[in-house]
Amino acid sequence: MNYDINGFIYRTEDIKDEELSDIYVESELDKQNVKGLMSQEPVLLVGSRGTGKTMLLRITEKKLDDSFKENKVLAVMVSFNKAMFLESLDDRNYFRQWMLSKILFALKRKVVRLCNVVNDLGIFQSYFNIQLPDDDITKKLERFNALLENSWTSKKVDLAQEIEKLFGKNVQYLGILNEMDYFKALIEDICRTLGIKKIILLFDEACHNFIPFQQREFFTLFRDLRSPYISCKAAVYPGITSYGSTFQKFHDARVVRIERDLTDPDYIALMRDIVKNQVDGHVYRIFESNGENFNTLIYASSGNPRLLLKSLYMASNGLKSLNLQNVNSTIKSFFRIDIWNDHTKLGEIYKGHKLFIDWGREFLENKVLIETSNKNMSRNDKGVKQQTIFFAIHRDAPEAVKTSIRILEYSGIVQLHTEGTKVGGKIFDRYQINLGVVLADEQTPSARCKEIITGLSVKLYSEYGMNSPSYEKIDELIVSEDITNFSDILQDIMKQSIDSLDITSFQRDTIKQAGFRTIEDILGGTEEDLQRAFGIGKTKSRRIFNIAFNATIEYISG
Question: What is the pTM of this model?
Answer without folding.
Answer: 0.86
